[in-house]
Amino acid sequence: MASRGRRPEHGGPPELFYDETEARKYVRNSRMIDIQTRMAGRALELLYLPENKPCYLLDIGCGTGLSGSYLSDEGHYWVGLDISPAMLGKYVLSGTRVDYPDGCGEATGIVSFSDCLFSNVDEAVDREIEGDLLLGDMGQGIPFKPGTFDGCISISAVQWLCNANKKSENPAKRLYCFFASLFSVLVRGSRAVLQLYPENSEQLELITTQATKAGFSGGMVVDYPNSAKAKKFYLCLFSGPSTFIPEGLSENQDEVEPRESVFTNERFPLRMSRRGMVRKSRAWVLEKKERHRRQGREVRPDTQYTGRKRKPRF
């Protein structure tokens, strides 16, 4: 891992940071496995999928498949996308299918043991991985047909898009490309839950702004906000009409009745909720302030004077 006080994304592109040494930690370090599995469980919980119904899910930044293994254990089918060949190499050694886009190392298809990226086969852990895998950069879009997936999770991956490793890379454009393609591949009415580690409020605003621009609604769920170590950020995005935003976990947490996602083929324009509102009216101002709160911006509290027109002079 990176040295204390230094974020991993500051050390270079993810495909170089997550090398064979780092990949080995994700399959041998029991603490990392436990943390990754618990975050995947929380992300799946926030998806509010229909009970007793297997769903087809997308795992962004799947790595060595810890999150995917949890999804399989819960009875779901999944596809993983990751940019690091070293992380996906563990799957290659266990015989799982890895799709390489044309011109990216291997031809699309199943990679044999003789073509794998590792010379030391002993580093692989014999785990049964049931998902399909794709080597690719999420900042260049997600290459699937519209409406393919019933939901999406991502653990500790999205913040990598906020850093430019080349002069030609624009974080805002890469984020928008990612969110726009993610919005397309999700079934309308489904959700995406992205666990991330924002560096600061400006980075968080950049991420939420591009997600909203791509068509998503939703907001940020913060678990254990008063804890320095247990605090976790989950960006909950809705690909259909706006719905409730789940409450974050705390030390004294009461159980909340879960509400399932409702999938639909109908289209809900982004501005439908604002139809009939008069511009600059109180309802219009309140709706705009609430939208900014969901994006993580600082908004002044609502008062009896909110949206009230001022006289031209005192």
TrEMBL record:
Record GO biological process: positive regulation of rRNA processing; rRNA (guanine-N7)-methylation
Methyltransferase type domain mapped to chain residues: 58-163
GO molecular function: protein heterodimerization activity; rRNA (guanine) methyltransferase activity
Region (Disordered): 288-314
Keyword Cytoplasm listed: yes
Pfam families: Methyltransf_11 (PF08241), WBS_methylT (PF12589)
Primary localisation category: cytoplasm
UniProt KW Transit peptide keyword: no
Subcellular compartments: Cytoplasm; Nucleus
Keywords: Cytoplasm, Methyltransferase, Nucleus, S-adenosyl-L-methionine, Transferase
GO terms under cellular component: nucleolus; nucleoplasm; perinuclear region of cytoplasm
InterPro entries per UniProt: Bud23-like, Bud23_C, Methyltransf_11, SAM-dependent_MTases_sf
Family: Belongs to the class I-like SAM-binding methyltransferase superfamily. BUD23/WBSCR22 family.
Protein name: BUD23 rRNA methyltransferase and ribosome maturation factor
Organism: Gorilla gorilla gorilla (Western lowland gorilla)
Lineage, uppermost ranks: Eukaryota, Metazoa, Chordata, Craniata, Vertebrata
Gene that specifies this protein: BUD23
